[in-house]
Recover the amino acids of this structure.
């Protein structure tokens, strides 16, 4: 079974600075998707960014980018120019065969002004 | 318009009661899910339906019974509620059924269930 590990329970970043959240996963599949979801205090789950495993190019969405290392099974999220509104719980998720997402335990991101 | 809507958003009830949570999506998606988020924020899939057909049934007590009257609706009924059922229950939908996951999951706002 696939597993997703987020080793950082909590991270802090100064406003306008850059922070990287780590995620590793375990799978024997060759084709899959990886996601980062954000859950603010409102508890709504919001997609931040998505990466297809067959694409070598790292996905980017405005201030959010990923470092996808397929061989190392690593999928980190970089947030540049951090803003107060980025404070939330961030979940890394794996989507492969079976049409379900497997989530990591989450990383709480705190943004200091 | 809300893409995935769940009702109620908050539910407080006594042990032993039966309760239901309703979910509707207006995205035209074929697949719907129920996820449970426990007190430690861990998200775990419970059920998935594709076009009214149950396709994922994780190890969930049979007190939990999902029902999908049509592909836009997926309800969750819970019998004989226990303290451990207290959690946030998320409904979600996605476009496709088979691998790979065709796109991301679109989540509802969650329903916080508190069992006293």
């Amino acid at each position: 079974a696939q597993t997703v590990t987020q080793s950082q329970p909590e991270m802090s970043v100064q406003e306008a600075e850059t922070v990287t959240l780590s995620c590793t996963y375990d799978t024997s599949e060759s084709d899959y998707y990886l996601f980062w979801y954000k859950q603010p205090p409102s508890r709504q789950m919001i997609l931040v960014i998505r990466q297809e495993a067959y694409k070598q190019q790292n996905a980017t969405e405005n201030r959010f980018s990923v470092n996808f290392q397929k061989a190392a099974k690593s999928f980190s999220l970089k947030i540049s120019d951090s803003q107060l509104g980025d404070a939330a719980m961030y979940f890394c998720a794996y989507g492969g065969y079976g049409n379900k997402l497997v989530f990591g335990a989450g990383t709480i991101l705190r943004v200091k002004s | 318009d809300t893409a995935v809507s769940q009702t109620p958003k908050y539910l407080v009830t006594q042990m032993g009661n039966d309760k239901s949570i309703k979910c509707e999506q207006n995205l035209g998606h074929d697949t719907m899910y129920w996820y449970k988020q426990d007190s430690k924020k861990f998200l775990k899939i419970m059920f998935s339906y594709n076009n009214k057909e149950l396709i994922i049934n994780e190890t969930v007590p049979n007190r939990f019974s999902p029902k999908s009257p049509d592909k836009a609706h997926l309800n969750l009924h819970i019998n004989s509620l226990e303290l451990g059922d207290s959690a946030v229950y998320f409904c979600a939908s996605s476009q496709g059924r088979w691998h790979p996951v065709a796109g991301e999951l679109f989540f509802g706002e969650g329903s916080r269930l508190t069992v006293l």
Q: What stands out?
A: The first strand of chain A starts at residue 3 and ends at 5. The radius of gyration of chain A is 13 Å. The mean pLDDT of chain A is 94. Residues 69 and 75 of chain A are 6 Å apart (CA to CA).
